[in-house]
Amino acid sequence: MHVLGLISTIAIAFGTGTPAYPATRPVDGPHPVVVRVPAMTCASCPERVAAALASLSWVRADSIHADRRTQQVKFAVTDPARFNLNKVREVIDRAGYHQTDLLVAPVGR
To answer: Residue ranges per domain, the chain?
Structure first.
């Protein structure tokens, strides 16, 4: 069992409520977005998720940072009005990761 799963199990077993997740980290640049991808656990997972996000025209490909340890992907969008969480979830789902949680939305939406 990976560390987050162990933390979640302990939190639930001791009745502390919802499981604890790593704190989000800020993204450099304008219009930051942070999503959590719980299934991103292997060494190649971040590359697959980053490639999926790079296919979206309004995602700044040079800003994508996927971290399997925190199970978070941070990226910037070119225009917050074009941000579409359903599209983010769709491309990540097609890459094989079936759950995506929005942690930080772009400012100005």
So the answer is: 24-104
Distance CA 88, CA 86 (A): 5
Q: How many residues does the chain have?
A: 109
Q: Which fold has domain 24-104?
A: Alpha-Beta Plaits (3.30.70)
Q: Give helix 45-54 / helix 85-94 axis angle, nearest 10°.
A: 130
Tokens of 76: 């910037």
Q: Which parts of the chain sit beneath pLDDT 50?
A: 1-13, 16-22, 24-27, 109
Instruction: Look up the pTM and report it.
Output: 0.72
Provide the greatest CA pair distance for the chain. Answer: 45
pLDDT of residue 19: 44
